[in-house]
Amino acid sequence: MANWRKVIVSGSKAELNDISSSGDFVMSKDGAAVKFGNDNEVTLTHVHDNGLLLSDASGIGTTKLNFGDSGTFVQQSADGILNVQADTRVDITGNVSMSANLNVVGNIHAVGDIKFEGGSSGTITMGSGADDNVVFSADVNSHIIPNTDATFDLGSTAQGWNDLHLGSGGVINLDGGDVTLTHSAGKVTLGGDGAVEVDFANHEMTNVDINSGAIDGTIVGAATPAAGTFTAIVGTSLDMNGNVDIDNATTAIDSSGTISIDGGGNVNLDTTSGVVSVGTSTSGIAVSIGHATSEVSIGDNLNVAGNATIAGNLDVNGTLTTIDTTNLQITDAFVQLAKGSTSQTNAGIIANTTADASGSAFYYDGTTNYNRWALTGPGDTGHNQTDVIAPRQYVVSVSASAAPPTGTPGDFGGSAGNSRVGMMYVQTSDDAGTKSVDGDIWIYS
């Protein structure tokens, strides 16, 4: 039964033979050893700042640490070799990390995600020759990009692939965009980053229907085409009632006054490559977007190269907010976590300690009937943790008063039976009734 007990600090030293303890057993000497057997043939020795050494009487040996029976054990079978052996198999349920080679003679069957890394400029080789096969039963969910440009083939003259399937809007890109073939509904468009030619090398073209355009400056098209080729249009106004298609390397609209684009529906600025820029080449000219009473919607990522100042409130409704600054400064005196909770909940901060963004949490445990501040160990808590967290330790709270403590502490703790264990109390005056004095320290245990 939990109750208040006085902490007694003693400087005495005792020598014990048989030891029985319901609590911790501490050996505070470097090199302390525990020996087993009538002739002390098995020794467990403390190694300073290193760990524990299991050995035979020689201090090295091939002593085994058995589990269940003699057929399941861990052993140093030879100098520098660790042997893990079981009657049937060895199950490892956690992560396995190796800093040297892994040699497997036989099949490898893995269930779950597999990641191969060649290290710094390393190489991952699949198979040892043409008589080996690499078979994909699953879909490929990434780009396939060669290490060196214009070097490796897809197939060979003797072994070619069959059909090439591209999705809607697919592009065949030659030499980094020098020539492109782009699909759209019922059409393939030839393009590129300069003058593009199609050379049939004196081969025939059959069933070619050209409905509009020009060949070497000569207008071609239907029987009565309404088309023209112009090098420049000069005038005070231009009124076009149909679609306007401007296809040029660079198109400039230069005005000494205001340029207005007013549409009855949506107004779209789009590009198939490069960047859509809204701004000016002159420093100090402000760019205004939106009306004072209208909202600005951004359908994709927003990247700000300089500083961003928000005069009003900032409301972020996503599932994850990431701040990648070197230091974070918050002027607010208090930071509220778990806003909107209507009952006891877990809330706190996590210090990242692992590569998968897990870490140690300092948090208020309000969901396991403890209702007090707690800690988890390194890597115990994921960065996206929202459920009940299993604490490693609880934060000790200290209260003080003149009288010795009585009853159950009421500052923290919940309905769990040991939710108040470890709370401390400092007595600040002598008490004749209990013979306790000023400075006595009490722990609820």
Describe the structure.
With 445 residues, the protein is mainly beta. Among the domains are: 29-86, no CATH class; 335-395, no CATH class; 396-445, no CATH class. Helix content is 0%, strand content 20%. The protein has no helices and 19 strands. Strands 1-19-18-17 form a 4-stranded mixed sheet, with no helix packed on it. Strands 13-14-15-16 form a 4-stranded antiparallel sheet, with no helix packed on it. The chain has a 3-stranded antiparallel sheet with strand order 2-3-4, with no helix packed on it. A hairpin with a 3-residue loop joins β3 (42-47) and β4 (51-55).
Key traits:
19 strands, four-stranded mixed sheet, 0% helix, mainly beta, flat
Low-confidence stretches: 12-16, 222-226
Please report which band the strand proportion falls in: under 5%, 5-15%, 15-25%, 25-35%, 35-45% or over 45%.
15-25%
- General form: flat
Biggest sheet: strands, sense, closure? 4 strands, mixed
CA(first)-CA(last) distance = 8 Å
Report the structural category: mainly beta
> Can you write the helix and strand succession as a string?
EEEEEEEEEEEEEEEEEEE
The DSSP helix count reads 0
- Helicity, in percent? under 10%
Number of strands: 19
Average pLDDT? 81
Strand order of the largest sheet: 1-19-18-17
How is the quaternary structure best described? single chain
Q: Please state the CA-atom Rg, rounded to the nearest Å.
A: 38 Å
Indicate the topology.
Elements: E1 4-6, E2 33-36, E3 42-47, E4 51-55, E5 64-67, E6 69-78, E7 81-85, E8 171-174, E9 179-184, E10 187-191, E11 214-215, E12 218-219, E13 347-352, E14 359-365, E15 372-375, E16 393-394, E17 398-401, E18 424-427, E19 441-444
